[in-house]
Task: structure prediction
Amino acid sequence: MDGDNITYEDMYGGIKWLSDTLNLQIVSQNIFQDFVESWWIILLALGIAMLISWLWILLMRCLAWIIVWLSLLALVGLLGFGCYYCFKTYSDLQDVPGSDLSYTEVGFTTNLNAYLALRDTWLWFGIIISVVLFILLLMLLFLRTRIRIAIELISEASKAVGYITSALFFPLIPFVLQIAVFGFWAVVATYMASSGKGHFKVYGATPNCCGDFTNGSFCEPDEFNNLYGSTGADCLFVGYGGDFYYDNLFWFQLYNLFMWFWAMFFVIALGQMVLAGAFASYYWAWKKPNDIPAFAVTESFYRTVVYHLGSLAFGSLLIALCRLVRVFLEYIDQKLKLSESTLAKFFMKCLKCCFWCLERFLKFLNKNAYIMVAIYGKNFCSSAKKSCFSSNEKHSACFCTGQGYRFSSLHWKVYGGWSIGGVFILPI
Result:
């Protein structure tokens, strides 16, 4: 029955596992209790969010150009006022004692007022805001034609949402599917984490107090406590192990994580393509609204499931692989935090930034490719190429269907934001 002495890692692993389990149970109970207490706020928030989203869509349908140009002018005015305020404050601090100190002399402090009392702070604020304002004015000057076209397309997209009202409720289906996928992943991960045989080791044993048992010996808690419970020694849980599943648990969890990424991105792609197909039927309708299908979302869903699941799987696979690489980089970065190699940390930051940009690009490419697949019915690669090298007419179709998708998604994002806010506001 002799074994190695029990180590700090053994004790820490067992205690951490028990602590995480108890904390998860407490968090789950608190979340459920918050939902029970705040259900009426959630319903009220849903109603307010519905009114706001419908009002916004209506305004964008009738007054899109006014809203967009007023927003741009308001942004220009706000940045202009920011420049004036920053340089005026910089000038007013000229005769204030201590305002000419450098950042080195002030040092690091969590008191932001110490930095706001420096002239250099307001000078840098003024310079940054001035540069942003200058770039914005150049964009408004040279891209005014593009902005007018975009306004027309936004107005047309809002009309499409008005004709295809079921598109406002369809995003609820992908949302429910994502919750189901996450729940399945969590259950599988929990079962795999608890697979194998529980291991217990002796702790706190004195010499010759427990027969053949010593500190670090494997034990059975019931048998050990009955025989030697009065000696002060304990038979404590240290983890799972000793079989094939536990020895390969890391790879099983990694595979489960990858499949979760793939399934989540697949569900997101499904929602994008279904809505793209629905709004494409509006865009290509010759006589609106007579030629618009009565069940545009249902027909688009049928086409997507029957003909385009392979394109969805391939596109979501690309993003899932990129996300998995980002997880590996995060894992390596955690290991490098204790390293003193500045060069290794620099390259790790560069890799994380590059793969973040790559994932953002893939998401952008996939969304446009799904729109092209929904419109023309081609495969994923051909559609991705077409979305990058298409004519102005095709760009307009892609943009219009994309705006319709954004309107529908925004509708439920507002719902979710108000609802989640209600959950957290009530306990406060």
